[in-house]
Amino acid sequence: MKNFINSGIGIDLVQIQRFKQLSFSNNQSFYKKNFSEAEINYCMKFNEPYKHFAAKFALKEALIKSIDKNIHLSQIETSHLNSKPIVRIVKNEESYRFFASVTHENEFAIAVVICEKLK
Description:
4 helices, globular, CATH 3.90.470.20, alpha+beta, two-stranded antiparallel ribbon
């Protein structure tokens, strides 16, 4: 059986309405502090960008919960490959592998991240 000492799991639930109330045009400093330019561009290309912002925020929070390390949201980069979420820590001296899932529907976005710390 595999050793799970170097593993972790995180989950986060976000109300999409919280982001709808923080319009991008009036709160650019918040968005630029917590999301990369690529993440902002990705979300803003949709008719309803705030559910995508909420999902990315949930992904970042779930990643933080999956590791035993205090990092800022801006140190986490999210993207997609074949419609699947990818998360990574930017400029990280430790090596991790993450498995992520995210969804949004109606009022909520939820994300789960499983972390494996590599030796």
